[in-house]
Design brief:
It is a single chain. By secondary structure, the protein is α/β, with parallel strands linked by helices. It folds into 2 domains: 4-121, Response regulator (Rossmann fold), CATH 3.40.50; 129-221, Orthogonal Bundle (Arc Repressor Mutant, subunit A). It is elongated. The protein is built from 8 helices and 12 strands. Helix 2 packs parallel to helix 3, helix 6 crosses helix 7 and helix 6 packs across helix 8 (191-203).
């Protein structure tokens, strides 16, 4: 699964360079030029990691704000100013940073730090997921409802596995399009909705079954 990085960098030359290089290394990069834009993107897309140059943004991500729903535990790497010292690093960690680099940034080191942080926070992959009467076995790509096998197409299974990873959490449409289909930009498409419709028709065998719940205006979750 492609990791999504939110790059909050006001300087256009640095932002453009890092975005190009990170995309070349297989990351999905979202960019913002100021804190408010970055917070809106963090809430909308739920990135896997944030790169930022503002300690205030790091603190706001950690503290949260009333009515806002971004992931307060998202990993954050702060890109500090040139000449930063130990005091600057300590302040960044006090505000919730997971790692800290000062400028000029050595790109290879940055990528190594990003991958190390992502490995550290990644949850162990479950070998078998049971949600009520539904069982999903990702390694075997087997799905059953009340012990009866359900045959799913490739993207249908990947969509179900993504939702089953956290069955009560609401996944935004942008997240699912990014993680299941690899969309790099968020455009209007019926791809997700049509797959959800087919997935429901295959999973819901009895009148009481209700899987892949639509949360209006946000996205989908597997069960209520």
């Amino acid at each position: 699964m492609t990791a999504a990085l939110l790059l909050a960098e006001p300087e256009p030359t640095i932002r453009g360079y890092l975005e190009r290089q990170l995309q070349s290394d297989g990351f999905h990069v979202l960019h913002a030029t100021f804190g408010g834009e970055a917070l809106a993107l963090a809430e909308r897309t739920r990135p896997d990691l944030v790169l930022c140059s503002e300690l205030e943004l790091c603190a706001r991500l950690r503290e949260g704000e009333p009515g806002r729903t971004w992931n307060r535990n998202v990993p954050v790497i702060v890109l500090g100013p040139a000449g930063a010292d130990a005091v600057d690093r300590v302040r960044a960690f006090q505000r919730g940073a997971d790692d800290y680099l000062h400028r000029p940034v050595v790109y290879d080191e940055l990528v190594a730090r990003i991958r190390a942080v992502l490995r550290r926070v990644a949850p162990p992959a479950p070998s078998r997921i049971e949600v009520g009467e539904l069982t999903v076995d990702p390694p075997a790509r087997v799905v059953t409802v009340r012990g009866q096998a359900v045959h799913l197409a490739g993207k249908e299974f990947e969509l179900l596995a993504a939702l089953a990873a956290d069955p009560h959490r609401v996944f935004t449409k942008d997240e699912l399009l990014r993680d299941v289909w690899g969309y790099r930009s968020f455009t209007r498409t019926r791809t997700l909705d049509s797959h959800v419709s087919r997935l429901r028709s295959k999973l819901e065998r009895e009148p009481g079954d209700r899987f892949v719940v639509n949360v209006w205006g946000v996205g989908y979750k597997l069960v209520d």
